[in-house]
Amino acid sequence: MMTERQRKFREEYKADISPLYNGLLHISVMYAVGIAALWYCISQLESPTWEWLLVVPVFIAGNFVEWFMHAHVMHKRIDVFALRAIYERHTRQHHQYFTDMEPTIDSTREFRIVFFPWRVLITLGVAGTTFGYLASLIFNPNAGYILFMTMVGHYLIYETFHYCCHVHDNWFVRNMPFINTIRRHHTAHHNWGIMMKYNMNLTFPIADWFMGTSDLRRGLLGHLFNGYSDKHVKEELKPVIAKFRKEEKRVTLDGPELTTEEVDAIAVR
After folding, report:
1. d(CA 225, CA 179)
2. How far apart, in whole angstroms, are the C-alpha atoms of residue 199 and residue 190?
3. How far apart are CA 243 and CA 228, in angstroms?
4. Domain ranges for the chain
């Protein structure tokens, strides 16, 4: 169910999208560049063995970086141009466009509010090349290529999972392991009452589980394979979640205006 506030914001946002924007071109370039980078790195590998083990720590580190960027850049306004722009795009636009009551898109033009702009892929490429080069110096070229591949793969998974969170419900997103989990996880994050503190992961909710910022109270495996279930939602969060599914008056572009009791209820423990 879409509120009047959300409907108006969507209309204004879509009216401001450039007529030159093409959602299919946006994601085609992004995935083409990412897949080409993976293919190139694979073609450069020379009989890697132990180097594949680097996937695990790089993947886990990436999961925590994803959490940190979401919690401390996307949801905290830092008055530095690039970081401020990320906050504006995410908290002041993405979270006004989507709520936990209406988190879906209807057209490819709306890809602009779902997928990162191309400059993020360029930034990732520079960072991946830097860390990959350092790994090649410390270990060997195989290690550098595998580190780079893991970073690019993580980014493509992020974008794919996020897209799956914002399409209309269907058999695939309901039943595919990990995707059904992150879809519920991210939809819950779009509740205006808890959006600033809970469910910051967009791939696998590992860092959220570890940092205590998940809306669920259960173990790591339970988090990873939770699917659509709301059975384990923390009891102290339920009243705030329910209230902000109806409450619009205390919602601003910078998040909810919470009472003292609500702040205490959603405090990360």
Report:
1. 9
2. 9
3. 21
4. 4-266
What is the number of alpha carbons within 13 Å of residue 136 lying toward its C-beta? Answer: 16
Residue 133, C-beta contacts closer than 8 angstroms, at least 6 positions apart: 144
pLDDT digits (tens, 9 = 90+) for 75-112: 999 998 889 999 999 999 999 999 999 999 999 999 99
- Rounded CA gap, 177 and 167, in Å? 16
How many other CB atoms are there within 10 angstroms of residue 261's CB atom? 10
Sequence-ordered list of residues with C-beta below 8 angstroms from that of 13, at least 6 positions apart, any chain: 93, 96, 97, 113
User: Tens digit of pLDDT for each residue in 167-190?
Assistant: 999 999 999 999 999 999 999 999
Q: What is the pLDDT of residues 230-244, one digit of tens each?
A: 999 999 999 999 999
Rounded CA gap, 165 and 168, in Å?
8
pTM higher than 0.90: yes
Rounded CA gap, 104 and 114, in Å? 10
Asked if 149 and 38 count as a contact pair (C-beta separation under 8 A), the reply is yes
Q: How far is CA 149 from CA 50, 82, 157, 246, in A?
A: 15, 25, 12, 44
Read off φ and ψ for residue 111, nearest 5 degrees: -60, -25
> Measured in whole angstroms, how far is the alpha carbon of residue 107 from the centre of its chain?
20
Do residues 175 and 183 lie in contact, with contact meaning Cβ atoms separated by under 8 Å?
Answer: no
Distances (CA, A) of 89 to 171, 177, 231: 30, 29, 32
Question: Residue 226 and residue 209: Cα distance in Å, rounded?
Answer: 12
Q: Per-residue DSSP letters for 126-145?
A: HHHHHHHHHHHHHT-HHHHH
Strand partners, 255: 252
242, HSE (Cβ side, Cα atoms, 13 Å):
9
